[in-house]
Description:
Layout: H1 2-27, E1 40-45, H2 53-64, E2 70-74, E3 85-86, H3 93-96, H4 98-106, E4 111-114, H5 118-128, E5 133-137, E6 149-155, E7 183-187, H6 195-205, E8 212-219, E9 222-225, E10 229-230, E11 238-243, H7 249-257, E12 261-266, H8 275-287, E13 293-298, H9 299-305, E14 312-314, E15 316-320, H10 324-338
Parallel strand pairs: 1-5, 1-6, 2-4, 2-5, 6-7, 7-8, 11-12, 11-13, 13-14
Antiparallel strand pairs: 3-4, 8-15, 9-10, 9-14
Helix pairs in contact: 4-9
Amino acid sequence: MKYIRYILFPFSILYYCVTSIRNFAYDYGIFKSYSFKTPIIVVGNLSVGGTGKTPQIEYLIHLLQDKYKVAVLSRGYKRSTKGYIEVNQHHKVSDVGDEPLQYFKKFDNISVAVNENRVEGINNLNKDLKPEVILLDDAYQHRRVKASFQILLTKYNDLFTDDFLLPSGNLRESRIGAKRANCIVVTKCPSHISEAKKTEIKAKLSSYNKPIYFSCISYSDKVLGETTYNLSTLKNYTLLLITGIANPKPLLEFLSQNSINFHHLNYPDHYNFKDADIKKIKEEYKAIKSSNKLILTTEKDYVRLSTKLTLNYLPIKTLFLEDKKLFNSTVLIHISKNNS
């Protein structure tokens, strides 16, 4: 892997030049950015792969939905449609994407829309639904929108400061892009992260002069689906675990730590499960000899698979390890000031 990085490094230099010119053009008004009266909160990252954007968006929805009229706008990754769509109960994953459909099904009193053109999507939301705050999912590099507040996520074990630009690394743009953020959230931390480790991470991020928060992923003690199970009872089951997410390793470790026996079928992120895949899953499940067995998946995969299989999912949520009240108040004060 190390040698491949060296081979690809010249292409990263080229990529750096292209992305730097693009950012320069936006910074100095050569390319136009659009501002809006409605507060626009962006959740994003500098790298490809899973940094926990979906649970962070859901954290914000929980924080805001009882106080403001909230809308979520996503591009609708891997959907088969184009243009602006307001998500409703008749839509499938292929129509709007898995994450937007997950938000719609999970939260009753928010609006969810998709549009690859975020400026057009925001204008349509403001015209049709008049939200008081709009959350943009994975739009940190969408510079045509001048967001009013930007939350930059970076993984605990894969900080953007330790990474390189594509294709030799995983960065979508140079590290200097972190300076556009209003705050940085270090995600997927161990729940008992040491003060020494937090100090070390803060030192690595100190040059960006941003507030730094630490969060972890918290797994539910309930497994949901057509039947609800207590997590503790799964020790008596054999699971067929299906994942189609960027990094299933934390989930595998969590199940193992809880002495849960499972067989794992792993698929790429946002995978479009085909009939042959469903057939294989059913065969693998049938081959499990235990009478106590079930198919378990992630919440995002459940949105894609629940119409094709009988299965359960393990919900997750973001927990702030410190300064939760400060983060919440910062977001709420920002919306209050920009929503008058």
